[in-house]
Amino acid sequence: GIANLHAYGTGFIVSPDGHIATVWSHVLDTSAVTVVLDDGRRFYAEVLGAEPALDVAVLKIDAENLPYFDLDDLGRAGPGTRVLGFSNMFKVAEGDEPVSVLHGVIAAATTLSARRGRYEVPYTGDVYIVDAITNNPGAAGGVLTSYDGELLGMIGRELKNQENNTWINYAIPVEALRQTIRDIQEGVFRRQDPMETDEPLNEASLVDLGIVLVPNVIYRTPAYVDSIIEGSPAAEGGLKPDDLIVFVNNELIHSIRHLDESLARLEPGEDFTLVVRRGRTLITVTLAIPD
Asked: Are the beta carbons of 231 and 209 closer than 8 angstroms?
């Protein structure tokens, strides 16, 4: 596991046939994601896709006739609205136990953009700030609803102010996520496994970019950066040792082999975007394949 990061989270079902929305996190950096429903049934889930800029991912399990949140029926809320936060915080809902429910009030509807540099979070759009301790370990991906059960927001990850060591509790309005969730369901962001491609490969290597990864000792070794060559494009782009490469051009990277194959499909001189996880933060870096 990754230091100080828990290996569980929360999601919410958005279709009767098993589409689940959740926060994009290290929990999904694995070849086997397990989903436990409220009745205790367990499923292996496929990660259909993710949009790191919105901090959202969509999973799919092989199930039918599930109760679900209708994304066409969202509630609206503002400051003073009494809300409920449902989540698997502290892994309380490991089997057929019910999720935790917190009562709170929306303190503000604002944007996270002004907090960049102080809060480590990839999402910088509109949020509900909640007067309740909703953003606990494992709670990210849970839901914020009105007292009448109307879906309002998705609980975000734990968010710490690096200047004064305080935490905030927030949820991302589902209205801001709705179209992306639907696009992933329909395949717009669906990841493709480059192991299955027959496209010709170029000779670009990670070393040409200044990236040295950890030894590739197993079939699915995670793409951790071991060192960065001084003066290289990777160094100029701000990559650092211990960064975990999780996306290349919106394609989820689940191993070093996967990363090599993904980069090999790019043309010399072509720009591409890496998203890396550094501690609890997702960082975006744009590099170019050497000519």
From this structure: no
Residue carrying the six token digits 């290597």: 205
Instruction: Identify the DSSP state of 119.
Output: B
Encode burial over 43-68: b for 16+ CB neighbours within 10 A, e otherwise: bebebbbbbbbbbbbbbbbebeebee
Across residues 139-154, what is the average pLDDT? 96
Report residue 6's pLDDT band, with 50, 70 and 90 as the boundaries: low
**Cβ distance 145 to 129 under 8 Å?**
no
pLDDT given at position 280:
81
Q: How many helices (H) and strands (E) does the chain have?
A: 4, 19
DSSP-derived 3-state class of residue 106: strand
| More confidently predicted of 252 and 44 | 44
Q: Which of 3-12, 58-67, 118-127, 137-146 has the weakest average pLDDT? A: 118-127
Quick: pLDDT tens for 166-196: 788 999 999 999 999 999 998 875 443 433 3
* Nearest-angstrom CA–CA distance, 134 and 46: 27
Rounded distance between C-alpha atoms, residue 215 and residue 74, angstroms: 47
Q: How many residues does the chain have?
A: 291
The CA distance from 41 to 254, in Å, is 26
Percent of the chain as helix, strand, coil, to the nearest 5:
15, 35, 50
Query: How far is it, in rounded angstroms, from Cα 59 to Cα 167?
Result: 28
Task: State CA 245 to chain mean position distance.
Answer: 13
pTM above 0.85, yes or no: no
Report d(CA 60, CA 185) in Å as an integer: 9
